Amino acid sequence: MSSGYEQVEAELDARGFTRYVFDLARVQELLDVLGSPQRAYPSIHITGTNGKTSTARMIDSLLSAHGLHTGRYTSPHLETVRERISFDGVPVDEERFVNVYKEVGPVAELLDARNDETLSYFDVTTALAFAAFADAPVDVAVVEVGLGGAEDSTNVLSAGVTVITPIGLDHTEWLGDTLQDIAIAKSGIVHAGSTLICAVQPEEAMNPILDRCAEVGATIAREGVEFGVLRRSVAVGGQVLTLQGLGATYDEIFLPLHGAHQAQNAALALAAVEAFLGPNVHAGAVREGFAGATSPGRLERLRTAPTILVDAAHNPHGMAATAHALSEEFAFENLVAVVAVLADKDSAGLLEQLEPIVSHVVVTRNSSPRGLAAEELGRTAREIFGPERVTVEPSMPDAIAFAVGQAESESSTGAGVLITGSVVTVADARKLLGRK
């Protein structure tokens, strides 16, 4: 790792990795001084509670298969901040990252000196992405919202195509504690004249989305009406889909990702690409794009014998999808979960989704400063699983080792370990188990 890159990482970290500042005017000012790089290319903008990153990665893969040069911005990252900014599916290299920062960093510091509060980590990485995409240049940017929508730093795009994945309760301290409030915040990425690709939503969430589209004159395509999953079957290494797109039906699509929720994400991704490309969508490229899709940290297998899976589900809605996929697609005789969550998450809701499918839960703590203490998580787990099915291991390496032993002790052939509860938990596990 170059010393220049280490310095950039340190300067970004000093801005506060988990600090949120909802002030679009500040980000807009930064981008204006940089020459409005976000206007140099068309964009597809994605929000929702769960599935954003997977959907973004599928859109990226589909566009690349159609011959377009793509830029993708997602968050959070698993190992390095460079993962957030990708070109044609590959994270930006250190040299390019440093060179773009040399353009953006001094301007950010200049603006910091003129304001009461500095630009946040996410503000600056967003500007870095948009500037890097303009410098490349890319044919299209695929951009995931960081938090919410209306006031998120990425909402300077006014993208022509937007996507809202399934909405559930999460980040309630910032977005509101009802589905209606959260949907109002997320639908803020829909702008005049745009096309919205929208997942099936609860009525409480769908009504404000429809209101927003009517207010700004946007076109909406709804899952289950204009597009959707027609058929899916479990296959080795993933699933085979038949998707109804906006303009055609696509069959024999192999998707190397697990779960009905990933099939839904695929339908959203396909519709978004159809809305963007119009009649220039080709079935062969669609199959190629989906076959090449990846989503690290989403029911990702790190080891075999016993099988060790990691999954970044961090709210009850996401964990329900994970639990369903595990029940449907994996034949574990004995599945042990290692769980570490952030303190502001609904830990009880997460554990309740896991309880029917795992034999034992090992609670631990991840490396985030916001991580919930293992003993506190253990108290919640005991209420849900009963004391005999819960082990508290404050050290994650010890927790994983215990879980492996527990899984193997009860089943020699169908043993499995699931490590879950947070993106940070997955990142820690991948590092411990040697996955890059």
How many domains make up the 3D coordinates? Answer: 2
Side by side, the strands of the main sheet go 4-3-2-5-1-6-7-8
User: Can you identify the CATH superfamily of the largest domain?
Assistant: Mur-like, catalytic domain
Structural class: alpha/beta
CATH fold label of the largest domain:
UDP-N-acetylmuramoyl-L-alanine:D-glutamate ligase
- The shape, in one word, is globular
Radius of gyration using CA atoms only: 21 Å
Helix content: 40-55%
CATH architecture of the largest domain: 3-Layer(aba) Sandwich
Question: Tally of extended strands?
Answer: 17
End-to-end span in angstroms? Answer: 15 Å
CATH class of the largest domain: Alpha Beta
Average pLDDT metric: 93
Please state roughly what percent of the residues sit in beta strands, choosing from under 5%, 5-15%, 15-25%, 25-35%, 35-45% or over 45%: 15-25%
Largest sheet: 8 strands, mixed
Number of helices: 15
Q: Which ranges are low-confidence, i.e. pLDDT below 50, for 5 or more consecutive residues?
A: none
Task: Describe this protein's structure.
The chain is an alpha/beta fold and 436 residues long. It folds into two domains: 3-291, Mur-like, catalytic domain (UDP-N-acetylmuramoyl-L-alanine:D-glutamate ligase, 3-Layer(aba) Sandwich); 300-432, Alpha-Beta Complex (Protein-Tyrosine Phosphatase, Chain A), CATH 3.90.190.20. The protein has helices spanning 3-13, 24-33, 52-65, 94-113, 121-135, 172-175, 179-186, 203-216, 260-277, 283-291, 316-329, 347-354, 374-385, 396-410, 423-432; strands at 43-47, 70-73, 85-87, 90-91, 140-144, 161-164, 195-198, 219-222, 228-235, 238-244, 249-255, 300-303, 307-311, 334-339, 360-363, 390-392, 415-420. The strands form three sheets. The chain has an eight-stranded mixed sheet with strand order 4-3-2-5-1-6-7-8, with helices on both faces. Strands 12-13-17-14-15-16 form a six-stranded mixed sheet. Helix 2 (24-33) crosses helix 4, helix 3 crosses helix 9 (260-277) and helix 7 packs parallel to helix 8 (203-216). The mean pLDDT is 93.
